């Protein structure tokens, strides 16, 4: 075993902790954006609550956090994000917390079984599942209306497309980007595995 093999788990853990922090930060940023900017254009003449872009990014960050830190750590991050959602946006507390918890669990449920076979496909499908659940629950609980639904779906789809493009480019450049955990779902002892 080389020195680089021994350093790989520490590097993956550090990357995972940064990803987890970014993931949780999307909660803060989404709630800040919606309370500060209200509705924003997302294209095709549609508008959505301004937090849509950060909420859309959260799903990919959740997937990457799971790849670097494992299932238990990402479930803990989901709980932290849910609590932050409830605490930082009193006017949207129930809507934000419920939407975050249920959509992230939907993302987790789709991503986990698919991630080892077709990683980018798993990212795309889990993001779609997550952002549909998030949009339906948040809009209904926050506004008692689904009027923003088309804009929410488009805005989150933009973020998924951007994230997948970046991941595909990284994969092409590095030769591999994806799960770094064992088949049991926890961080592997030696570096990245495909």
TrEMBL record:
Residues spanning the signal sequence: none
Chain coiled-coil ranges: none
Ranges that cross the membrane: 15-34, 40-61, 73-88, 119-143, 149-170
Pfam families xrefs: Vut_1
Entry superkingdom: Bacteria
Keyword Methyltransferase assigned: no
Record key words, sorted: Membrane, Transmembrane, Transmembrane helix
InterPro entries the UniProt entry points to: YhhQ (IPR003744)
Protein's UniProt name: VUT family protein
Species annotation: Kineococcus radiotolerans (strain ATCC BAA-149 / DSM 14245 / SRS30216)
Species lineage: Bacteria, Bacillati, Actinomycetota, Actinomycetes, Kineosporiales
